[in-house]
Amino acid sequence: MTNSQSFRDFVQDLLTVEDAVEITTPVSPHLEAAAITRRVYETRGPAPLFCSLTEGETGFRILGAPAGMSPKAKGEHGRLAAHLGLDRTAGPRQIVEHLIRAMHADPVPPRIVESGPCKENIWRGDEVDLRKLPVPLLHAEDGGRYLGTYGFHVVKTPDASWTSWSVGRTMLHGPTTLVGPAMPEQHIGIIHSMWRDLGERTPWAMVLGAPPAALAAAGMPLPAHVSEDGYVGALTGLPVDVVETEQGGLQVPATSEIVLEGWISAEEIGPEGPMGEYHGYSFPEGKLQPVFHVETITFRDEAILPICVAGLPPEENHTIWGTMISAVALDVLRRAGLPISMAWCSYEAATCWIALAVDTKKLSHRIITEKEFVDSVAKVLFDSHAGWLVPKVILIGDDVDITDINQVVWAMATRHHPSTGTYLYPESPGIPMAPYLTAIDHAAGSGGKAITSCLFPGEFTGTSLARAASFGTSFPQELQEDVLSKWTAYGFAAD
Ligand SMILES: Cc1cc2nc3c(=O)[nH]c(=O)nc-3n(C[C@H](O)[C@H](O)[C@H](O)COP(=O)(O)O)c2cc1C
Ligand SMILES: [Mn+2]
């Protein structure tokens, strides 16, 4: 078992490398844990493990910022890399290619085992009361307390051919009920409607404190009918050990911290939200969403509930969701034969834009206008499950490192032609969450998409005259090396 396969091992390892801190001071799940977690994201502090909570039954713990960013010296993407079984030093390119490799490998289906730590404690019948868990209030303006912000839904098609694991939020609705989104474009929505069409409720489980690789895959827009469990096996190289739910019919990872078992009502809806969200805002209105009924709760001893306190980047909607979208989008574009060498949802852009690096050498070998090229990117990306999630696309020549936000800003300011470089796709359907959408957009189900080209005209013909003026490009290699070797001798501090 490695850190990517067990949340408990993952947390232990974070503590060992001092990228998590055990907090024994009593902390309230009512805003205090979230306020600390928010400050941790914003200061790149170690993930807080709250060991003494003032609400909920004793013994439960909370981990904040499970995939928050770390300081450079500790590996900026270390927590994310650890989710995926990579070394903490792995950077965006290594992470994205690792995710893509597993998409092309044969799925490794999960292995059903007899029992596991998630069965150490079982609440059934009258014992089931979600308020016994430390359900946090995450922002003062939220419409309720959120139990599920870093867990995934488990549902299966009626013919059992497709198991879907997907990250989605759930808010406390009653002692044994939750409410949360199940959008028709997301796989939980598709499967929920299959059961509804049969006139049945949807058998459902929610896993909190899942194997980190499983959580990441559940936040990844893999295509419909692809079971995330088999993808996780391919990603980690080992089948996920799963146990049968107490109610039967679904399987959940054996090492999970907390498992909720029940069903989604075919008809019933309840008020959900508002909640501070991934784009960085909170709006005053909630929505009516499906009701999830919890009939059984199983959990590990000293169970740890992970939480994401959504809002200004970077939090897990950016580090996990944004990275997973980047990998799937890059794979879709490459498979279509487009000259795209990297895709990156800049964390700073709150998963509202994706930058694409264009292989300008390959581009120059095609006889194609900018409009034709941009349209071909739009066609491939906007028709994909991943493309639905991100409304804005930026195309930049691959001399720019699109994972460096400073370089992206420089390219947008200096390469984008203000009168000809923006291409609009107003009819393209997209996620209805974008903060700028109007009531008319919501009614139409499309807020539109845009592609911003930062490609120089000469990059289509191999005749671009622009050369970056910088340390790395304006001096002979030999001189650069000489300067670097004498850097401290000049009197500067080492990098
Ligand atoms: C921390 C986090 C929270 C998320 N919350 C939601 C959510 O509440 N609703 C939603 O539709 N997607 C949410 N997502 C994104 C989905 O998990 C993602 O789009 C995934 O692809 C959905 O699974 P599916 O492709 O199997 O439908 C979240 C992702 C992360 C990482
Ligand atoms: Mn899916």
Give your account of this protein's structure:
With 495 residues, the protein is of the alpha+beta class. It folds into 2 domains: 7-307, Roll (Pnp Oxidase, Chain A); 336-460, UbiD C-terminal domain-like (3-Layer(aba) Sandwich), CATH 3.40.1670.10. Helix content is 27%, strand content 23%. The protein has helices at residues 7-16, 32-43, 78-83, 92-104, 187-197, 212-218, 228-236, 316-335, 360-364, 370-382, 405-415, 439-444, 477-485, 487-490; strands at 20-23, 47-50, 61-64, 111-112, 121-124, 146-148, 151-156, 163-167, 170-174, 177-179, 202-208, 241-244, 251-253, 258-272, 287-299, 304-307, 340-344, 353-358, 392-397, 422-425, 449-454. The strands form 4 sheets. Strands 5, 6, 7, 8, 9, 10, 11, 14 and 15 form a 9-stranded antiparallel β-sheet that branches. A 5-stranded mixed β-sheet has the order 17-18-19-21-20. Helix 4 packs across helix 7, helix 4 packs across helix 8 and helix 6 (212-218) packs across helix 7 (228-236). The mean pLDDT is 97. It binds flavin mononucleotide and manganese (II) ion. Manganese (II) ion is lined by residues 164, 166, 187, 222, 228.
